[in-house]
Write a structure and sequence with these properties.
Elements lengths: L10 E4 L6 H17 L7 E5 L5 H14 L4 E4 L5 H11 L3 E5 L8 E8 L7 H17 L7 H6 L3 E4 L2 H11 L2 H4 L5 E5 L9 H7 L3 E4 L21 H9 L4 E5 L6 E4 L5 E2 L1 H15 L6 E4 L5 H8 L4 E4 L3 H10 L4 E3 L5 E3 L8 H15 L3 H12 L3 E8 L5 H10 L4 E2 L2 E7 L4 E5 L4 E5 L6 E8 L2 H15 L5
Parallel strand pairs: 2-3, 2-4, 3-6, 7-8, 7-9, 12-13, 12-14
Antiparallel strand pairs: 1-5, 4-5, 9-10, 10-11, 14-15, 16-21, 17-18, 18-19, 19-20, 20-21
Helix pairs in contact: 1-2, 1-4, 10-13
Protein name: phosphoglucomutase (alpha-D-glucose-1,6-bisphosphate-dependent)
Keywords: Isomerase, Magnesium, Metal-binding, Phosphoprotein
EC number: 5.4.2.2
Length: 476
Amino acid sequence: MSRIRFGPEGWKAVLAEEFTFANVKALTQGIAAYLNSNNLGKKGVVVGYDSRFLGDKIARAVARVLVANGIKVFLLRRPVPTPVVAFAVRERATGGALVVAGGSCPYEYQGLKFIPEYAGAAMPAVAEEIQAETDRVLECRKVYELSLEEGGKLGLVEEIEVENDYLRHLSRMVNPEIFKEGQLKVVVDPMFGAAVGCLDRCLEAFGCEVRVVHGYRDVLFGGLRPEPVDTSLDDLKRAVRAYEADLGLALDGEGGRLGVVDETGEFLTPNRVLCLVLDHLLKTRSFRGPVARTAATTRVLDRIAKKNGLGVNETPLGFHYIGECLRERGCMLGGDEEGGLSVLGHVPCKDGILAGLLVAEMVAFAQKSLSEIYGQFTEEYGRTENQRLDFCYREQDRERVTARLQEFSPKAIAGVKVEKTLSVEGKKFVMEDGSWVLVRNPETRPVVSVYIEAQDRVRLADIQREIQNALGLSSQ
């Protein structure tokens, strides 16, 4: 058995190389030990899976290990999005869930993640406990297993369906009356993933005219990563223009992240979508609370919050920190730089299906095109540009790159004074003109990630060049 690296987002690896049945069972044994040692196993565990290759068989292998450890399994009958599994944890009041899901990874990957009893992503402390338990399993090679037939006889296996309850919950998170103002034409792209039949079904129930592209299971995801980013949504853009739709909505392979295309076929960055959704919620909802965002997410959210008398919680990168703010600080909205979003009253995990419904509701409420809505928004809050750049380097150069980053402490960047320097996920520099740059050098990969926000593309390019030259990074 090879090394398993388990974190808040679980463990992902290439099928048949590291992601083997033997490794999956070892990790499940570690999770079972964590559950029982924390007195959570007696509550039972939901087991779900996505539509990737072998997902159902891997899920059943997971279930066999859990029941052998005396933990009741609520096994979902068919592939479902990860937010649906999280919803099942909350509805069934279980000790957590295990989800076989590869997220936005290429088709040859598969993953296993743990959702704790609070129905959000695992916090680092939980992941560390599971890692320690799994390391012990890998060392002693003791994995227990019981057939599901025997488990059923012992009352430890129950097959469940929760999609309808989840969709009914979503209908309470949005305002169906708003959709009656005018019929929207929406194109939905679930990218061949686990969210096939979810978002389109909700929109149709609200009276929208819906077209679907890639609305069936394909374990190869059409040859693309199931990631709702600009470069992967050409088919959605074409469909929006061809059908003269009001907008296009895309979901990643497990239904957690949203991508948005306006009526002209232009991609809206996740940062812009987050800002528009927050502005819409403030116009249409009575509840109020702080806003949670990661350190790499737009500070335009701060402008909106300040104007409306709301606080802002800036977190390290990772939606598990956003979920913590939603759970413990009463945040009305939480989002990250990759398109993850959730709101007060919903499960504290990223949910692209809910996000898609809120974007559609926003367009219906405004009775304007998405590009007009954004244009009106920028008149009030200003326009910004965002960019993420990844610079790869050789592993043998890690010490040099790390030293340069530690020493890098500029008084100004591209001619503008640095107002604040923060040590969060690396180094973040906030300039007097409101622009900022975050530089990260993770321990797990030889890559420096640079996140930049500026008022225009010229300023953004100037910041990029100065950071790149100062740290000796070469584009590849």
